[in-house]
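Quick illustration, no need to memorize.
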Amino acid sequence: MPRSIATANGKTSKMSARIERLGRDGAGRNETQLGVELANRFTLAGLICVAVSMVGALLLVTDLLLDDPAAIAGTTGLAALGCLVFWCLAPLRRRARIRPQAGGASLHTLSGGTPEPKAAAATAGQ
């Protein structure tokens, strides 16, 4: 339920509650979060395209310089493996390591600190 914001005379304003709801979708995420998620997906797609073009350029150069098909395949495969490990697997591993097991991430946990105690545990003693 959206909360209303108290005005100067102590009454709540329906308009302020509507303003607060603006920019939220049905899941409760605001447009900034949606924009960041969309930008992240586009960045990942662009990074894949860059990796494919780099490996293709390396394949072209090694094919022109070397006559051995095994050396060409090895060099190209090593470059593709490097792109896969350093651009895909390492960031995914880091994301899995820093993402809290339950609940949302906070700046404290993203910087390597321990997660803050849950609100349920704090209210259990009441």
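Confidence is low (pLDDT under 50) at residues 106-113.
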